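Section 5: illustrative case.
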């Protein structure tokens, strides 16, 4: 009887089902054990929006001493920062994350200067910084301040019609100021007209599109600063003489650059690249999608940058300076020397045909130890202003240039990812094609197919 029960079909099915259930349970238990022991995640978004940036990975994975992130919040709210902090902890065995409830451990919170819930401190070695907020920018910024230690100040020249650093209008540079603050740079304006000397606390200076001539004492101050190991970003617009807002030639300043091997041509670049039409730009915006290997642009291979009202550059290496190209304009661009009339003859044989060099980076060897000057020259200034810095890779290019000038090469990378704009931009002709296909062609195909099926069945 027992042998018959064992051979019964129901018994076999029950044994199979039990075996399957036990195997599945074993797989689930093992998978959960491994997931808890070795936490891994996969970001399936196209631009890796939920992953830490290359900048953060470089900093944390390059830690040379133990580091601790301490998160202060109520116990029931630890989960608000846990996902982000666990990503940091997974980058390096030298980094630990601690969770502290200020209500249960008020002494520790008081010693750390914590006044609000949801605050984090970052300690690297004996140095501790408070994160500005619980975001990647805030926490990574605290790491940077811990590691760098010293204050780094970027000084923007003012007094000759440059883009104001504190101005939030279209022509201001306030958004660039905010981007630099995320990398823990301080910013300030300086006026060389008042005192022809670059302050000693300026890690780098920025000349952002002056519309008036620099006087010789100002130029001499910039020359002395860079040739003694200073760092400078030059953004110079073409000397347009149209309308009331004419731009000066600034010959004294461009002569200084020429002595370092960079000639700033007196022309205006026009780009007939059809991609510009997709973004709604005219020919006065030069688009760049191909870059050199210099550290400023080496990580920007998939980025597009735009430069309104740009001029071309030519360069060479001199006995004391080494100059390297950053990028060119497209082959569909050309440069005209007609800077006094809005009417441009695209077929003028005197036009220079693209690609045209638009930006270079160089170093100046003063012959002294630890005194290498650095400079970056871009033939446009509006690309870094509030109206344009959010365009695709412009913000990355601006901060990367400052990073390199300040010898912070480890910070050069694509910044923390912003939500990707997945909208499709079409020309009027493309929109008409989509409308015709969707409203007429596709319904007509369905009608014809229905008639054919009906005819066949009939």
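Designed sequence:
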């Amino acid at each position: 009887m027992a042998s018959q029960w064992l051979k019964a079909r129901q018994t076999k099915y029950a044994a199979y089902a039990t075996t399957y259930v036990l195997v599945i349970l074993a797989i689930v238990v093992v998978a959960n054990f491994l997931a808890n022991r070795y936490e891994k995640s996969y970001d399936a978004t196209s631009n890796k929006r939920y992953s830490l940036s290359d900048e953060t990975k470089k900093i944390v994975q390059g830690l040379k001493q133990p580091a601790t992130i301490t998160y202060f919040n109520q116990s029931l709210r630890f989960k608000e920062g846990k996902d982000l902090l666990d990503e940091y902890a997974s980058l390096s065995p030298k980094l630990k994350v601690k969770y502290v409830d200020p209500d249960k451990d008020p002494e520790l919170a008081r010693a750390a200067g914590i006044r609000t819930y949801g605050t984090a401190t970052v300690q690297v070695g004996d140095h501790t910084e408070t994160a500005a907020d619980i975001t990647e920018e805030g926490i990574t910024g605290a790491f940077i301040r811990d590691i760098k230690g010293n204050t780094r100040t970027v000084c923007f020249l003012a007094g000759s019609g440059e883009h104001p650093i504190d101005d939030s209008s279209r022509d201001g540079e306030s958004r660039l100021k905010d981007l630099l603050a995320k990398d823990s740079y301080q910013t300030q304006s300086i006026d060389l007209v008042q005192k022809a000397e670059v302050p000693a606390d300026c890690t780098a200076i920025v000349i952002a599109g002056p519309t008036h001539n620099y006087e010789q004492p100002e130029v001499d101050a910039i020359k002395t600063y860079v040739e003694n190991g200073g760092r400078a970003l030059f953004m110079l617009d073409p000397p347009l003489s149209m309308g009331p807002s004419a731009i000066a030639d600034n010959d004294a300043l461009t002569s200084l650059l020429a002595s370092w091997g960079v000639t700033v041509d007196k022309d205006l670049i026009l780009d007939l690249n059809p991609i510009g039409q997709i973004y709604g730009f005219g020919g006065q915006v030069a688009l760049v999608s191909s870059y050199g290997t210099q550290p400023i642009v080496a990580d920007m291979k998939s980025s597009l940058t735009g430069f309104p009202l740009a001029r071309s550059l030519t360069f060479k290496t001199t006995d004391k300076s080494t100059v390297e190209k950053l990028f060119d304009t497209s082959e569909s661009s050309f440069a005209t020397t007609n800077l006094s009339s809005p009417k441009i003859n695209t077929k003028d044989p005197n036009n220079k045909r693209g690609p045209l060099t638009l930006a270079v980076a160089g170093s100046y060897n003063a012959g002294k130890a630890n005194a290498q000057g650095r400079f970056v020259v871009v033939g446009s200034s509006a690309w870094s202003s509030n109206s344009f810095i959010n365009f695709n890779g412009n913000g990355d290019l601006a901060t990367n240039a400052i990073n390199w000038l300040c010898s912070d090469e480890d910070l050069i990378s694509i910044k923390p990812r912003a939500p990707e704009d997945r909208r499709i931009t079409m020309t009027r002709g493309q929109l008409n094609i989509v409308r015709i296909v969707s409203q007429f062609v596709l319904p007509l195909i369905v009608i014809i197919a229905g008639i054919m099926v009906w005819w066949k069945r009939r």
